[in-house]
Each structure stands twice: as C-alpha cells, then as structure tokens.
Amino acid sequence: MPEDFEHFEPILEMAINRVPSLADAGIQLFFNGPESFTPDDRYLLGETPEVSGLFCACGFNSVGILSSGGVGKALADWIHDGHAPVDLADVDVRRMQPWQANKSYLFDRTKETLGLLYKMHWPYLQYETARNVRQSPFHDRLGSRLIKLAP
Length: 151
Prior knowledge:
Blueprint: H1 5-18, H2 22-25, E1 44-47, E2 55-58, H3 64-81, H4 103-116, H5 139-149
Antiparallel strand pairs: 1-2
C-alpha cells in the first residue's frame, strides 16, 4: 500500500522522544501492508533454532501493540539469562518446523487461521486445511492397511 507519512508521523515523533537516536537513523524502508500472521495465530518468540544468538519477536498480527510490553520484557530476560523467564512453549519459535515453510501449506493454513482469529479458541482444535503436507514414509502402507481392516 502507498506510504502514509501523515498517519505515521505522530508515532515516529513519540518513538524519537523515547529513543532520541532514532532521529538520526532514518527510514530505510517504509512498509505499509497487511499484518503478519503465523500458521497457528500465535507469536514467534525466542531464539531461532537455525542461528544461535538470533532472537525474534514477530507474527503478532492484531495484538502486537497490546503484547509489546510483556513480550519485550520476556525476550530481554531470555536473552540475558539464556532461557525463557516463564513457560513460553506456546509461542516459542522452535515449535515451527522446516516443512511448514511450504508455500501451499502457508497459503491454505494462514487463510484458515485468519478466519479463526476472533472465534472461540477451543482446546485441541483441529485445523481443516493443509492436511497431508507432512507424512510418514509409511503413510501409504498404513493407509491401505487401515482400509483393509475396516468392516
């Protein structure tokens, strides 16, 4: 979407008041676009499994501002202490697996989770999209065996 400096300027001014060095940093890229959603609608927080010492806090979709204070403190403690200050397994970036980088999976699953964002979050919810992206090497044999065993 086009840049909207009039909308962004008050936010930037408040940020510069809080962190004066931002006044000299400049804006390299102005991105005005859709929010970031993850395949399960939960943040990606913590140290990445691929790069030691690289921490992330992203995928906040509509709750980034609301969560920023607590997330900032938790991540700062995590970086300082070398471990999460509380149980953050629900949002730990390490829950994501390499097979979830599949574009077809992300396209289908993210559309579904976006639609579920404001619905009741029932325990053990089973997603309907992006099934069979990851299968056991024995999937075809197990599937045919189950069919033969069915009455």
